[in-house]
Amino acid sequence: MPNACVVLNGKEIASSYLANLAKEIAELRASGEVLSLATVRVGEADACRLYEKSIENLLKKVGVRHLSAVFSENVEERELYRHLEKMNADPEVTGIMIFSPLPKQFRLEALLNAVNILKEVEGRRLLHASKNRVAPPTALAAVALFEATGWDATGKTALIIGRSGIVGKPAALLMLDKNATVTIAHSKTKDLNVHVGRADIVIASIGKPEFIKGDWIKPGAVVVDVGENMVGGKPVGDIEFEKAKGRAAFISPVPGGVGPVTRVMLVRNLVALSKLQSIDHEHS
Ligand code: NAP
User: Fold this and answer.
1) Model pTM?
2) Which of 52, 121, 145, 209 has its CA 20 to 30 A from that of 160?
3) Phi and psi of 251, rounded to 5°?
4) What is the overall mean pLDDT for the chain?
5) In the beta sheet, which residues pair with residue 98?
6) In testing the pocket of ligand 1, which one of 184, 188, 206, 208 has its CB within 8 Å of the most ligand atoms?
7) Confidence grade of residue 125 (pLDDT, cut at 50, 70, 90)
8) Beta 229-231 vs 234-236: how paired, if at all?
């Protein structure tokens, strides 16, 4: 049989994307919106210099202004904060980007936190792993229940069922930060029972009473049930509790599992925010 494999051509794909973007940018310009990207580079590392050059060429092609700031490796971090604040406040700056890796004396995470989230062009703040990560309290609560088992998630398979923005997606990121191998299932997932049967850790957030059958659970798994479905005036989880309990090593009940921890996580976020803010203030 002939080889039917198609080699995807990145150059072609890039130029077709760029052509569409150039149109959008031209339309924005016609309506008075001039786009600009402020970049911050510290030091002369080849990789960052070359990346900046290629970005500059690209921006020129599509009519976006480039405001380049280059600092020496000896700059004080305080200087970088001042510059970022100026860029944050400048209405003519659309996006801000910090080239990385930074020389090791600088703290990328803290600097990214000083960038106005609406201008952080690489979207790194959202996904940057951090112990101070602010995440939706329910997802944090689900992971806190997992942590209470004392298990190390490293190398374990974690199945997150549900992909809502307040539970499933953030819980997947949090488990990824814990070195689990993460799968996210949703309503279009096939053979959910097979996925459940392979998972060392299950976090369910579907919103359907006892949808996950107890005999799907891998013996010895950790099972966290986020579901809170009112049945006959009582909250019932997404997991068939009694049967799952017979197989799991740990399981969270409904009510009395994730719910009470969720409220506490709101306070935990407040503390995390105050830490992030003090990192910013330290340097302003
Ligand atoms: P949601 O926004 O409705 O999301 C439900 C998710 O479940 C969706 O991603 C959906 O997939 C997926 N799903 C639906 N049917 C499925 C199926 N048959 N197989 C696999 N996945 C399926 O719900 P949510 O906000 O995450 O909440 C879910 C449950 O958690 C609810 O019972 C809610 O009451 C409870 N909850 C509890 C707390 C707490 O503090 N304890 C907080 C928030 C929520 P698609 O994306 O494909 O539609």
Assistant:
1) 0.84
2) 121
3) -150, 145
4) 92
5) 40
6) 206
7) confident
8) antiparallel
